[in-house]
Design a protein that fits this description.
The structure holds two protein chains of two kinds.
Chain A: H1 22-31, E1 68-69, E2 75-76, E3 99-104, E4 109-114, E5 117-119, E6 122-125, E7 131-135, E8 138-144, H2 146-167, H3 173-186, E9 194-201, E10 207-212, E11 218-221, E12 223-227, H4 230-240, H5 257-274, E13 281-288, E14 291-298
Antiparallel strand pairs in A: 1-2, 3-4, 3-12, 4-13, 5-6, 7-8, 8-9, 9-10, 10-11, 13-14
Helix pairs in contact in A: 2-3, 4-5
Chain B: E1 10-15, E2 20-25, E3 28-30, E4 33-36, E5 42-46, E6 49-55, H1 57-78, H2 84-97, E7 105-112, E8 119-124, E9 130-133, E10 136-140, H3 143-153, H4 160-175, E11 185-191, E12 194-200
Antiparallel strand pairs in B: 1-2, 1-10, 2-11, 3-4, 5-6, 6-7, 7-8, 8-9, 11-12
Helix pairs in contact in B: 3-4
Classes of the chains: A alpha+beta, B alpha+beta.
Chain lengths: ~300, ~200
């Protein structure tokens, strides 16, 4: 009879197989469940060993602690995943990075955010906005999980439309602030992964900034920052905007909006340097009672 | 809670024009409770080198004593001053000797090279991996706050008084947003003419 291939395998001493097709060899090897290596061509076969076309690997079963076996006493390699309990991880939340900042002034508010969207160590986009203009006098900035942020914005837009329909007036900034707090609290037991900062001018024309946590606790503050770079920015704002730990009170004047924009640019350069999730560009909106103006500045793209 | 956050602390070292400064807070706490507000974390090694140790208080004191010992023995044997770069290496080796049972400190070294007058800065992790910078280094429980302040306020070639102001503002603003640091501060500026040390008046909370 003709034999196409001859493989000698070292499975057990009494099962040396000759004259099998490739498929038959595969099947017989699979029956060993990994107890030996698949046939590897030995290119260095010399005259003596020329009929040995495989390199055998010995699988020493005696040193294995937990050997499982099927009925044919073929040992199964488990890797700890079929017999022992193990936890499968799934988290509904993901952090998409970024930093947002808002500062209030006498008759204006400045809201800024970087434009990078990331996931883990990867950058998904360099040009995604974190700012959302709700009314002519209010802008919402949110960092966190983008899908939760987008959904939150949709919900807010709808609730605002309902308010405008019911009350025949535009929502003022303190009302928007309260509504956002309530909306977040509706999802108290499966929160929106959104860290919000709201900036705008109130009904008297003064600048207003509100800071939030993920479940709707909020407070009106002179300034606020949220996201991955918040720790870099908040102490800086304490020092420069609120003049904390400073002895030069006599030199203190109210800052103009263009000065604050310069401070915000510096702040984002700093955050972009030291925070990996912040960079690419910063989008700055200046809100006054007359409306909203926008500037975009490039940051380092690393 | 991490062991490095058990006692709390904050430290900055910054380079100026032919001068270098090191600043630290002076709080000693046991987790949330403050136990002392005059705890020394910056140690003068010789006339032109300071080391700042942030981390577990027990290791802060032990490492500073072992370090002083090794430095003094070097000066005795060699008959010359230890340069800041060599000192940083000695500290790095000391920490790596304890690679698998480390000292829980994250030190920073600030010095002025005696011959060239150039500032020297280095920071290390708890097993001695050094980083050498020419602007500033920070360490402690509020490094993010301090990085934000220093990165914004730092300019190259600051004179002594400017460097003092920058260090003081950066430290105070940084520790005021950290519960485990603060309760006073101290700043040392090293120049070729000597060391100027000042205490900071900050929030006592």
């Amino acid at each position: 009879h003709q034999h196409k291939h001859t493989y000698t395998t070292n499975i057990k001493a009494d099962t040396i197989i000759h004259s099998m097709s490739y498929l038959q060899v595969q099947r017989s090897l699979q029956n060993t469940n990994g107890a030996t290596a698949l046939p590897i061509h030995n290119t260095e076969s010399n005259g003596i060993n020329s009929n040995k076309h495989t390199i055998s690997v010995n699988y020493d079963k005696s040193t294995d602690e937990q050997t499982l076996s099927d009925d044919n006493n073929n040992h199964i390699i488990d890797h700890g995943v079929t017999q022992n309990p193990y936890e499968r991880g799934f988290s509904p939340y993901e952090f998409n990075g970024g930093t947002v900042l808002a500062i209030s002034g006498k008759d204006y508010a400045v809201v800024a955010a970087d434009t990078r969207l990331s996931s883990g160590y990867e950058i998904l986009s360099r040009n995604v906005t974190k700012l959302h203009q709700l009314t002519n006098t209010t802008v919402l900035a949110s960092a966190g999980c983008k899908t939760d942020v987008d959904q939150l914005r949709s919900v807010l837009d709808i609730r605002m439309q309902m308010y405008e329909h019911d009350n025949r007036k535009n929502m003022s900034t303190p009302s928007v602030a309260q509504m956002l707090g309530n909306t977040l609290y509706y999802k108290r037991f499966f929160p929106y992964y959104a860290f919000n900062v709201l900036g705008g001018v109130d009904h008297e024309g003064k600048g207003a900034v509100y800071s939030y946590d993920a479940i709707g606790s909020f407070e009106r503050t002179p300034f606020s920052a949220a996201g991955s770079g918040q720790s870099f920015l908040i102490p800086l704002m304490d020092n420069v905007i609120s003049h904390k730990n400073r002895c030069d009170e006599e030199n203190r004047v109210d800052l103009q909006s263009d000065e604050v924009v310069e401070i915000v640019k510096d702040a984002f350069v700093t955050a972009g340097e030291r925070d990996i999730y912040t960079g690419d560009a910063v989008q700055i909106m200046v809100i006054t009672k007359d409306g909203v103006t926008e500037h975009v500045y490039r940051l380092k793209a690393d | 809670m991490s062991i490095l956050e058990y006692n709390g602390g904050a430290m900055i070292a910054m380079a100026g024009k032919d001068c270098v400064g090191i600043a630290s807070d002076t709080r000693l706490g046991i987790q949330a409770m403050t136990v002392a507000c005059d705890f020394q974390k910056t140690f003068q090694i010789n006339s032109n080198t300071f080391v700042g140790l942030a981390g577990l208080a027990s290791d802060v004191q032990t490492v500073s004593e072992v370090l002083k010992f090794r430095h003094d023995l070097y000066e005795l044997r060699e008959g010359r001053k230890m340069t800041p770069r060599v000192f940083s290496n000695v500290l790095s080796n000391l920490l790596y000797e304890k690679r698998f049972g480390p000292y829980f400190v994250e030190p920073i070294v600030a010095g002025l090279d005696a011959k060239t007058g150039k500032p020297f800065l280095s920071g290390m992790d708890l097993i001695g991996a050094p980083v050498f910078t020419d602007d500033y280094v920070v360490s402690g429980t509020c490094t993010a706050n301090l990085h934000g302040m220093c990165e914004t306020l730092y300019r190259p070639d600051m004179e002594v008084e400017e460097l003092f102001e920058t260090l003081a503002q950066a430290l105070l603003a940084g520790v005021d947003r950290d519960a485990l640091s603060g309760w006073g501060g101290v700043v040392h500026i090293i120049t070729k003419d000597g060391v100027i040390s000042r205490e900071l008046k900050g929030r006592q909370d």
